[in-house]
Design brief:
Blueprint (H helix, E strand, L loop, with lengths): L3 H11 L4 H7 L3 E3 L5 E3 L1 H11 L33 H6 L8 E5 L4 E5 L8
Antiparallel strand pairs: 1-2, 3-4
Helix pairs in contact: 1-3
Length: 120
């Protein structure tokens, strides 16, 4: 994926082409499970704005609707402990990621399967 001045140069070089071609040529493409291409328009436009010096302020610390993250969780009535999407997005977690649960005296640690206890 091109960024910064390389991204700006490529966009200028390509000129007036369809948006999907622009995104693809700049490297903002990932492979779907079925082998098809997924064009990452949002990442492309965020990088383009950043390359032009426009800061979006990032989403870190902000959940849905612009609320600030509290970094606390409550046990629900059914006994489940919910970790919200904003937190999993900050860690680039995907559906299906697995964790070992380590219980301490007053803490619960989630360790990625295959990871070490020392990971932060």
């Amino acid at each position: 994926m091109l960024t910064g001045s390389d991204l700006l140069a490529k966009v200028k070089e390509l000129g007036d082409v369809p948006k999907s071609t622009l995104v693809k040529e700049c490297g903002y493409v990932t492979q779907k499970k079925d082998g098809g291409d997924r064009l990452n328009f949002t990442a492309f436009y965020e990088s383009l704005l950043e390359a032009k010096g426009v800061s979006l302020g990032g989403s870190e610390g902000v959940g849905k609707g612009g609320r600030k993250l509290s970094y606390t969780a409550k046990v629900q009535g059914n006994g489940n402990l919910l970790v919200g999407k904003a937190y999993t997005a900050m860690l680039d977690l995907e559906p299906g990621d697995e964790f070992d649960i380590k219980l301490g005296k007053k803490a619960i640690r989630l360790i990625p399967v295959g990871g070490s206890d020392d990971e932060e």
